[in-house]
Design brief:
Layout lengths: L6 E6 L3 H12 L4 E5 L6 H6 L1 H18 L2 H4 L11 H26 L2 E4 L2 E5 L2 E4 L2 E10 L3 E3 L14 E2 L1 H4 L8 E5 L3 H12 L3 E5 L11 H13 L3 E3 L2 E9 L2 E8 L6 E5 L1 E4 L3 E3 L32 E3 L10 H15 L13 E3 L4 E6 L2 H7 L2 E7 L4 H6 L5 E7 L5 E8 L2 H13 L4 H5 L10 H10 L7
Parallel strand pairs: 1-2, 1-6, 2-3, 6-17, 8-15, 9-10, 9-15, 10-11
Antiparallel strand pairs: 4-5, 5-6, 7-16, 12-13, 13-14, 18-19, 19-22, 20-21, 21-22
Helix pairs in contact: 1-5, 1-9, 3-5, 3-7
Bound molecules: flavin-adenine dinucleotide and 1,4-dihydronicotinamide adenine dinucleotide.
Length: about 475
Amino acid sequence: MADTYDYDVLIIGAGPGGYVAAIRAAQLGLRTACVESRETLGGTCLNVGCIPSKALLHGSELFEEAHGGALAKFGVKLGSVELDLPQLQAEKAKAVKELTGGIEFLFKKNKVTWLKGTAKFTGAHTVDVGGQAVTAKDIVIATGSSVTPLKGVDVDNAGGVIVDSTGGLALERVPEHMVVIGGGVIGLELGSVWRRLGAKVTVVEFLDQLLPGMDGEVRKEAAKLFKKQGMDLMLSTKVTGASVNGGKATLTLEPAAGGEATTLEADCVLVSIGRRPNVDGLAIETIGLELNKRGQIDTDHEFRTSVDGVWAIGDVIPGPMLAHKAEDEGIAVAENIAGQTGIVNHAVIPSVVYTMPEIAGVGLTEEDAKAAGEIKVGKFPMLANSRAKTNRDTDGFVKVIADAMTDRVVGVWIVASVAGTMIAEAALAMEFGATSEDIAYTCHAHPTHPEALKEAAMAVTGKPIHI
Ligand code: FAD
Ligand code: NAI
């Protein structure tokens, strides 16, 4: 029966969701093709997201360490320190090329066919790619997301004055004054990059606090730290319009609740107010597939849509728009299509903001955990962690939230230089259903930052040692 189709599985989109699904499907013996319209594989994440942003974050961190005297403090004496922005951008491009090329290699190795072009549904088992009909028994929509536009603030990445994240990753000079619209993950990561390289950065955020969705105490700590680093934060403020003249932008601002308008000048404006699912041009209406109120495609826990044989994963479906969430869904959907049992535990998906310090969390915020039942909370400051003290990176804390009755860990929040690495242990513990006592009695190497997680777990029962 399956042989009547060109492929067993056709995946639309080769981002972290789609390319991983394609590789796993091929590993499971299914004849697999993946349609991708970009010139390179890897989707948003590898081309214009996770990877290039982390390259710039790393490079700008090294520059700030050298320029700001952090190295001198450790006896590393330098002559004059200069920024070579073209070299930093070239190194970023090299990392992107190596990684996107790596996916192409993996496709060949696993015998996944890359169909270059844009896919459009013409039936539940048929898509059109560049005028050619391609059929498959199962089709996975993994088309990802793109930048949400802001009315009255027109992005022109080529012009370099009003940019979105893609333009903000490719600036050819350091702006004198960058205004970031939206104090979420992209705004704070890219704002940090350009601040470290010399820009004055102002973040305009509609809500009364940065980083919506994160633990309240973490959000407050983040605001304190970013202010200390020299970022200007304009909270509870909205941008109502922008004009560009002679390479400069003038923004009109208003209090979020309404009120008197003011203006703000900038030579670069980064629009980072969120992302929305990519469904335009897919013609899902031809197969009777509908979007939910947020413009996403709903699925069941096996990633089946309401149309038989059509599945969806990644940023195009509900849940956090994160690469590792998309990847895990990619593995699960392929296994489900192959008749196995693919599961993603959506209650344990870590998220990390790669600023300095890093900000990470997994599970419930303290606010949500309290609303769900009785809890106990243990906290430990990085200031009391010996490795952080030695490295002079003592900003932040670890917070462990546990169910008061069972002691089972329901959430962990970390602000620390290596929070992104530390959160993996918390995620593993939660996946295994650990109690705070399990973490507290696990031997942690000394001196390391993760000892702070152990001590925060000990603090849940009131017994940390070093504070
Ligand atoms: P995408 O990666 O968006 O891939 C979808 C692909 O489908 C695209 O390549 C697109 O061209 C293709 N496509 C769409 N429609 C069609 C069609 N009709 N035909 C053919 N091809 C099509 N997440 C993290 O976890 N960590 C990070 O550090 C991180 N940093 C980020 C930094 C930035 C600046 C941005 C913008 C995002 C970042 N993200 C990060 C989010 C992450 O990139 C996304 O969550 C992830 O890429 C989603 O994967 P996906 O496979 O669902 O979609
Ligand atoms: P976001 O949802 O993280 O933040 C957007 C911010 O803009 C919010 O704080 C929101 O309140 C604010 N906002 C919305 N409208 C506004 C307006 N008109 N004026 C002022 N502020 C306004 O979205 P962001 O930063 O664009 O990132 C998009 C997605 O990409 C996120 O969902 C994130 O998961 C993902 N991402 C993940 C990264 C990571 O894992 N490290 C890095 C970068 C992106």
